């Protein structure tokens, strides 16, 4: 039975059990409570750091409730993606011990583990004073997402702060416009609807590309930044390619990033520049999200944790209530997505590890996960997606479907350098400095050199 089904009946069952214990005079064992577990740490101040996006803002709004129950304060620092990652690396490498827990993208996990920077959470989970027996992560979370985002080398190091995927965003009001529908059918011979394949996606971008009227068909995250790599991976996977020939992000294997499928995906990606703003090579995720909020783009590919700011936040978005969301169009690789996520992690040298664990565990409870998700988060709990208030959200179905077909990405200690190599080469290809084939050949060669014998090149380079 799922937690969501059992929970409403739990109080009644608890009352029956208590009554039976009284009748038969069975000594009652005091149940675990957060308040009791937190008593030794009352007055502690926890410090953490993460990306300045709605999920972290939602956590900040929830934290006072935890403080009220425990006396443990939580101070949260918010930065842009790259800055949040860099500040954590400086803190860990410099042994400054500023943060009691950190929120970091899972591609950094292997590096943290290899450098001995993290505390495995199995010690907390096996401590009856700290472990809430009602939280069973194997049942409460999507198992595949938890293990891909927060495990390394067969050991758990945290829990998903966000379970992220990317999918297609569309202007629903334009799709529903009768004049647009008639004109599109006359030109393309089919109904105006979200794209089923990449040709249809390109047709939609072409149809709605009207720069003279301030509307662009699509928007690309073409800046020399991690956003470029993340965005292109959607095309790479869908076209049937990958970076390494492996089944798990923590594995090393043959380099296949310059396969014919990969080259085709980059050629297609570059072709969309024709229907994007002229300064697309300067854009990353914040920029394209702002364009959509301003109603200046018809379609793009974006993260699920950014959806709320466009679809629901009427103060920030001119197109709130007028958006549609769908899985990525299908390519030769079928319907796919990518696994990404930020994890709650506790540094090995943290000053307040036990108190940090209690907060992280509390945040993983259903009530907090539901509230955070509704505030713009991306939960890894299936019962959150099953909640009626979540199911009615226009982007909920796309998130759930993409979670089920998401591909892992490298979490090796060298994953950061791998990303840097690909960002460099993808940027050169988008700028027209190299062909797709030349850029990916160079990326394959450099990644192979970086990883060594465990990563031979499967395709020849020129």
CATH architecture of the largest domain: 3-Layer(aba) Sandwich
How would you name the CATH homologous superfamily of the largest domain? Periplasmic binding protein-like II
Number of helices: 23
Shape: globular
**According to CATH, what is the class of the largest domain?**
Alpha Beta
Q: In angstroms, what separates the terminal alpha carbons?
A: 57 Å
Any idea how many domains?
A: 2
For the secondary structure, the number of strands is 13
CATH topology name of the largest domain, in short, is D-Maltodextrin-Binding Protein, domain 2
Order of strands, main sheet, comes to 8-9-7-10
Radius of gyration: 24 Å
Structural class: alpha/beta
What is the helix fraction of residues, given as a range?
40-55%
How can the largest sheet be summarized?
4 strands, mixed
Beta-strand portion reads 5-15%
Average pLDDT: 92
Low-confidence blocks of residues: 1-29
Describe the structure.
By secondary structure, the chain is an alpha/beta fold. The protein folds into two domains: 3-164 and 340-393, 3-Layer(aba) Sandwich (D-Maltodextrin-Binding Protein, domain 2), CATH 3.40.190; 166-338 and 411-454, D-Maltodextrin-Binding Protein, domain 2. It is 45% helix and 13% strand. The protein is built from 23 helices and 13 strands. A four-stranded mixed β-sheet has the order 8-9-7-10. The chain has a three-stranded antiparallel β-sheet with strand order 3-12-6. The chain is globular. It starts with a helix and ends in an 11-residue tail after the last helix.
């Amino acid at each position: 039975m799922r937690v969501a089904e059992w929970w409403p009946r739990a109080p009644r069952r608890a009352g029956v059990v208590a009554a039976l214990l009284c009748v038969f005079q069975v000594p009652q064992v005091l149940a675990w409570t957060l308040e009791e577990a937190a008593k030794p740490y009352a007055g502690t101040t926890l410090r953490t750091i993460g990306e300045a996006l709605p999920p972290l803002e939602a956590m900040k709004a929830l934290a006072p409730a935890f403080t009220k129950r425990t006396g443990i304060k939580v101070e949260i620092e918010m930065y842009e993606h790259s800055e949040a990652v860099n500040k954590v690396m400086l803190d860990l490498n410099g042994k400054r011990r500023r943060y009691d827990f950190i929120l970091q993208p899972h591609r950094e996990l292997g590096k943290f583990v290899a450098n001995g920077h993290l505390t495995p959470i199995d010690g907390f989970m096996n401590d009856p004073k700290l472990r809430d027996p009602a939280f069973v992560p194997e049942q409460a979370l999507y198992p595949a997402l938890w293990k891909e985002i927060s495990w390394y080398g067969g050991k758990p190091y945290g829990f998903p702060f966000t379970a992220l995927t990317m999918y297609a965003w569309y202007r629903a009001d334009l799709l529903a416009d009768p004049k647009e529908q008639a004109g599109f059918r006359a030109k393309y011979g089919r109904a105006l609807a979200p794209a089923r394949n990449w040709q249809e996606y390109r047709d939609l971008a072409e149809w709605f590309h009207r720069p003279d009227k301030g509307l662009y068909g699509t928007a690309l995250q073409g800046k020399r930044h991690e956003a470029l790599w993340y965005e292109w991976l959607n095309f790479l996977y869908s076209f049937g390619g990958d970076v390494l020939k492996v089944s798990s992000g923590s594995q090393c294997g043959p380099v296949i990033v310059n396969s014919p499928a990969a080259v085709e995906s980059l050629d297609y990606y570059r072709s969309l520049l024709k229907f994007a703003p002229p300064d697309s090579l300067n854009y990353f995720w914040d920029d394209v999200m702002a364009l959509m909020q301003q109603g200046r783009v018809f379609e793009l590919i974006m993260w699920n944790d950014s959806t709320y700011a466009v679809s629901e936040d009427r103060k920030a978005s001119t197109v709130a209530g007028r958006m549609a969301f769908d899985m990525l169009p299908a390519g030769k690789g079928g319907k796919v997505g990518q696994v990404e996520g930020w994890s709650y992690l506790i540094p090995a040298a943290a000053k307040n590890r036990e108190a940090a664990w209690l907060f992280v565990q509390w945040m993983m409870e259903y009530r907090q996960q539901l509230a955070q998700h509704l505030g713009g988060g991306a939960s890894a709990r299936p019962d959150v997606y099953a909640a009626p208030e979540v199911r009615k959200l226009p982007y909920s179905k796309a998130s759930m479907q993409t979670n089920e077909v998401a591909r892992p990405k490298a979490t090796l200690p060298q994953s950061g350098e791998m990303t840097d190599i690909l960002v460099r080469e993808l940027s050169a290809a988008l700028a027209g400095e190299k062909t797709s084939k030349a850029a990916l050949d160079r990326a394959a060669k450099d990644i192979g050199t970086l990883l060594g014998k465990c990563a031979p090149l499967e395709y020849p380079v020129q």
